[in-house]
Amino acid sequence: MENTPFFANDAIVFGLLMVALGAVFYTSSKQSGFWNKFYKVVPALLMCYLIPAIFNSLGIISDEFSNLYYVASRYLLPASLVLMTLSIDLKAVFNLGPKALIMFFTGTVGIIIGGPLAILLISAVSPETVGGAGPDAIWRGLATLAGSWIGGGANQAAMLEIFKYNPEKYGGMVFVDIVVANLWMAIVLMGIGKTERIDRWLKAESSAITELKEKVIAYSEKVTRNPSLSDLMIMLAIAFGATGIAHWGSEIIAGFLASNFEVFNDKTSALSSFTSTFFWMITIATTIGVLLSFTKAKQYEGAGASKIGSVFIYILVATIGMKMDLTMIFDNPGLIAIGLVWMAIHAGLLIVVAKLIRAPYFFLAVGSQANVGGAASAPVVAAAFHPSLATVGVLLAVLGYVVGTWGALFCARLMEIAS
């Protein structure tokens, strides 16, 4: 039986999260003193993620008793994507060049080879940790991690269906997924505060990213105005109207594919992830935002569209933080060790390739999160660099859904051999 947190009422939990976010923004706005020095080391975005994790670890709140992450990821995330893509310059996004794709696929390869290499390395120290037979074979459980870390939840479910890992032990793999993926996200967020230093070390060529940000900033300054009540209501109407269309469309498309094509309905098929309503919801919301960027709706950037979108993103970050229990790190050290070695190989390969092709840290961070975190966290990380870059995170995350099942299948076979 799960321990009930001190606060289980979502109204109270949401209030607590908002106070935490307000405290972070208040202290991070200080121009001098302790807080100014603190945020030069620890990014504000990381604190927005870490404080809810601490609350969860102390039993004050719990994601297990809350619907806030569901609300934030299903309602606020698509709304924020619409608002943050209103001012996007699609041509400038494509001008970012091939490095974004190279880093994304490097991250994918890092996950594919990281699994079997982690098994080989851990087996040299603790063979029993990577053993098991039949449905209890550890490699079968790790296949679900590969699905999650390349595509997302739908791909993870497909791997569970294909390799028939023992359902009673599946919770342990979910636990590794949450701990390792969230630790890695925390490290990625920490790096955002040191982007310039990292880019200098990588000798990165980031002029295309700078040009995109400058274009959006210049446009925003040109149309900027004090938002009226009408402006605010219209922006919310656009954001949540588009979210409603995205939910409606996602149900229709996913239902149509599942009902009319057996290959999509078959959980063991690599195409089954296309019946994920979350995948289509994110795709449709982003498409609506991009289409609106070619209309007069683009001018609402001057009234603060991307700022409202950023508010929604930070609320999402706080609810993601709620999913992290820092005390869980010590519960299953063997499986956690596999996950940490696996993620270290993924990260190491990304760093090597970024150094070789002089890719900016932005591409490394977003390319990694588009794999490991998927559509829920890749736009968050991208928007942390600048709201105008959120679209890049979404596009790569959608690509992750597409290649996730195939990549995870290949990884699983390699892990079976390594075992």
Task: Describe how the helices and strands are arranged.
Elements: H1 10-28, H2 33-41, H3 44-57, H4 68-85, H5 90-94, H6 99-125, H7 138-150, H8 153-163, H9 167-192, H10 195-202, H11 207-223, H12 229-260, H13 262-265, H14 277-292, H15 305-321, H16 333-357, H17 361-372, H18 378-385, H19 390-418
Helix pairs in contact: 1-3, 3-15, 4-12, 4-14, 4-15, 6-7, 6-16, 6-17, 6-19, 7-8, 7-9, 7-19, 8-19, 9-16, 9-17, 12-14, 14-19, 16-17, 17-18, 17-19, 18-19
Please describe what this structure looks like.
By secondary structure, the protein is mainly α. Helices cover 74% and strands 0% of the residues. The longest helix is centred in the middle third of the chain and has 32 residues. The model has no long low-confidence stretch (mean pLDDT 85).
Summed over residues and divided by their number, the pLDDT gives a mean of: 85
**Cα-based radius of gyration, to the nearest Å:** 21 Å
Largest sheet: none
| Strand residue content | under 5%
Number of strands: 0
In terms of structural class, how would the helical and strand content be classed?
mainly alpha
Alpha carbon gap, first and last residue: 34 Å
Choose one word for the global shape. Answer: globular
Unreliable stretches, pLDDT < 50, 5 or more residues?
none
Tally of separate helices: 19
User: What percent of residues adopt helix (DSSP H or I)?
Assistant: over 70%
Element pattern in H and E: HHHHHHHHHHHHHHHHHHH
